[in-house]
Amino acid sequence: MAESIVPESIQKSRPASDVDWSRVARQGALGGLTMVFIAAAGMVTVLDKRMIVDPWLSLGLIILLWVPVFFGFMAAREPTPDGGEAPVKGERDLLAGMVTGALAGLYFSFLIVLIDRFDISDWLSNLLPKLVDILTFGRGIGTAAAIWIIGSALLGLIGGALQVVSPRVRRMVTWAVVGTIVVAMLELIVTNLFQGLHIEWVADLLYAPRGGLTTQAAFVLAVVFGISGFRSSGKSLDQRRQERMALPKEVLARRNLIAWIVTVIAVIFVPMFVGGLTNELLANVGLFVLMGLGLNIVVGYAGLLDLGYVAFFAVGAYTTAVLTSTESPYWMPELTLNFLRPEGWIVVGAVILVGSIAGILVGTPVIRLRGDYLAIVTLGFGEIVRILFLSDWLSPYFGGAQGITNIPSAEIGPVVIPGTNSQAIFYLLAVFSGIAIYVSWRLQHSRLGRAWSALREDEDVAEAMGINTTAIKLTAFVTGAIFASLAGMIFAAKVGAIFPISFRLLISIVILVVVIVGGMGSITGVIVGAVVLIGVLGGPTQPGLLQEFGQFKLLIYGALLVVMMLKRPEGLWPSLRRQRELHHDELRQDAWLTGDPGQDTAEVDA
Amino acid sequence: MPDPSPILEFRSVNIHYGPVHVLKDVDIEIFPGEMVCLLGGNASGKTTTLKTILGMVEPSSGDVVIDGTVMTGSTTAEIVSMGVTMVPENRRLFKRMTVYENLEIGAYLRQDRENLEADLESIYEMFPRVKERLSQKAGTLSGGEQQMVAVGRALMAKPKVLLMDEPSMGLAPVLVQQNFDIIKQINDVGVTVFVVEQNANMALSIADRGYVLQTGRIVLEGTAEALLANEDLRKAYLGDADSA
To answer: What angle do CA A372, A373, A374 make, to 5 degrees?
Structure first.
């Protein structure tokens, strides 16, 4: 028979004609839809101004071009059958990827033709003729459509090819592309850093005068990243962390200690070498780390979903404002937020006290509620607090919509920390966050921390074991409230004027997203979450590193949250405990297969 | 009867959930070292009885007396400190905590922290499997292992009275037998055991005495042998499968 002389590997690779066309059609349609959505959301128009590689590649194009690659990649992916061997990759997958890309390009060119022929900007305000100019590259509509279809087909082909090539080559390509784009995106901070280090000429070499990498720099970077990708072991960060867990406990403890020392040194020295802009970002991150750590205790440790967390932030800010502002009727000239004088500590003490009282006031009525009900009621409380500060009734004290202005800056002895000096504000926040980290860490491993875990797991049984659930719930609320009100205190001293509008529901949501995306119950996770969301994307009002995305921030938050919940529910940097909780079945299987039930002995939250 | 003064006593306890009269003038007496079972079908008030003992439900009238002290209106923590612990229905372990942490929570209210190690050891001795699984998530254990941990967790509180809610629920027949052996073992070392069960046959085979609860009222009580021989009970619980 003919088959017997064909090598086995080719036998298993089904011929090019044998493509799963329904899958291709589905992925192609999804890809086309994604591209249309991105264009309709206005991202292309806005981001087109931002150059990635000068002069031919803008961010606006990149956020379209990844789509055919991704869906081509997905279309060429074949799931390994249960217990069977992975199918051998071949030309079939290239074809699948290419057709998927071509389909996506085809659907997208329908959109181009549509907005070229008809003015539909009444319905979809972002689909303006300007978009057509960008998408047709100044050529005729027919040529443009052809370019999009053929271009997408090629990109889809690349996506399919990524399935076929060896993992090593795939890593090389991904590293080269992603690394280069990341360096281009980080232009602002890199330039800033090089200026701080007085080596601006490197930045001049990398970046073109009107923004974006120069073509030569992009090429060099791609080669460098490609080589490092090719040489890398390809182990994910998670795998490395899991492997580290296997190390003896003393080694692990020492490494953790070293990691923390390096972090502390970086926190101390990095702000000195970067410019004001980066420091502003760092200060924003610091603020959300402090709040995130507080919410992490309530949500991550005790499992109480609090959607009104901003209330405590507001209470801290208003307490500081009322006590120290020259405008407040309760202004006492001797009270300033001076950390080296007793009156400063009176302010801090008052903020902690009022924050705790707020925690008890909000906590007590909701303590009997569970799950959804708790979330709904705390949501209400968050709004109540904001509306109280806004109300005419309390405006003699809190200034209503006008808020409280003229809040003096924080001071350390004779040194003033003006809100405009983000570096100093960052250090201040770093100190408070450091304390919060220490407190969180000690609590996590305390008897109370265990009781919180039990509460999170099964409230009834926790109660039956003699745990006073009411008391520990209140403790969680109060601890969280204290962290948030301290953040509010620094916030008030930083901005100098506070208004009820500064304490919207959105803040609660963003802090919660920081905790969830970072990894609930993980201290490092909160920091990672704050860096990624607040530092890179930007906070509710603060711009982030990727300022271009400013107006799409919430869209990206939402998309990120959906993707995280589907693909990585344990967060970016989970406590290893939580990661195992969510994937414990696999691990259990592994443990059973290797006959080593004790493989997950080490319980260290790195 | 071994000791004249009961360690756990219900004095005509009545419980109302709103308009619903759940327990009606219930009198129960359990003496130190005894193993007593409470039998009853669904919605007869068995779980409410346990909740009342633990102070999670407050009687509308009547008293719960533990070790000679009237504990009506006390908090669960106070009652657990008196030496009463429960193994909940379906084990209800803290699934995403390790076995060790589960045991630790059991000893949450213990003041004599220095004795914990020794007590852990005695639990490992009773259940060698538990020791092997200490650092594993409780949720990843098999049903039988979970039952051991649930019992271990309760024993870590050093109880004088162990309450067991439906120990046979959700377990394979082989494990039910094993489970009742464990209960017997615990009783043999002097812990008073109060078992709430639907599986009357199994419960009565190891218990000293039993009570039968029907729609909130104690309808029968007596020694295990007497109950086993009782015609009505046989009809209601032991005979036809349709009544349980």
So the answer is: 90
CA distance A359 to B27: 43
By Cβ distance, the residue of A454, A577, A587 closest to B105 is A454
Cα dist from B133 to A418, A458, A526, A589, B119, whole Å: 56, 21, 31, 14, 17
**Distance from the first to the final alpha carbon of chain A:** 60
Specify the residue for token string 């991550």: A300
A197 and A301 both lie in a single domain: no
Are both B60 and B108 inside the same structural domain?
no
The neighbour count for residue A329, using CB atoms within 10 Å, is 9
**pLDDT (0 to 100) of residue A206:** 86
Contact A455, A473 (CB under 8 A): yes
Token pair 């709103």 in the structure block, residue: B18
A565 domain-assigned? no
Q: Are B77 and B183 in the same domain?
A: yes
Q: What is the model's pLDDT at position B237?
A: 66
Domain boundary among B158, B191, B211: B158
ipTM of the complex: 0.89
Contact A465 B97 (CB under 8 A): no
User: B47 in a domain, yes or no?
Assistant: yes
Query: Last residue of some domain: A148, A164, A180?
Result: A164
Instruction: Number of A to B CB contacts under 8 A, please give it.
Output: 84
Is there a single domain that holds both residue A125 and residue A219?
no
Mutation for B interface: A245, A457, A576, A601, most B CBs within 10 A:
A457
Q: Are residues A332 and A411 in the same domain?
A: yes
The residue to which tokens 């039990």 are assigned = A454
Residues B154 and B172 in one domain: no
Work out the minimum CA distance from B140 to partner chain A, whole angstroms.
7
CA distance B108 to chain A (A): 7
Cβ distance A570 to A519 under 8 Å?
A: yes
- Share in percent of chain A as helix, strand, coil (round to 5): 70, 5, 25
Per-residue burial over A480-511, b = 16 or more CB atoms within 10 Å of its CB, e = otherwise: bbbbbbbbbbbbbbbebbbbbebbbeebbbbb
pLDDT in tens, A5-55: 545 554 455 555 677 888 899 999 999 999 999 988 888 888 888 888 888
Residues A194 and A436: their CA atoms lie apart, in Å, by 32
Q: What is the pLDDT of residue B62?
A: 92
Secondary-structure percent of chain B, ordered helix, strand, coil, rounded to 5? 40, 25, 35
Mean pLDDT on A475-500: 95
A460 close to B (CB below 8 A): yes
Does A464 contact B at CB distance below 8 Å? yes
CATH number for the domain spanning B238: value is 3.40.50.300
Rounded to an integer, what distance in angstroms lies between the CA atom of residue A478 and that of residue A579? 27
Which domain does A128 fall in, by range? 1-164
B198 and B225 inside one domain: yes
CB contact under 8 A, A588 and B86: no
Cβ pair A465:B137 closer than 8 A: no
CB-nearest to A454 from B94, B98, B133 is B94
Condensed to tens digits (0 to 9), the pLDDT of residues A62-77 reads 999 999 999 999 888 8
pLDDT single digits (tens) B118-160: 999 989 998 888 998 888 889 889 888 898 899 999 999 999 9
Q: State how many domains chain B has.
A: 2
Q: Would you state the pLDDT for residue B86?
A: 92
Dihedral sign for Cα A144, A146, A148, A150, please.
Answer: negative
Residue B213 belongs to domain spanning: 1-83+165-244
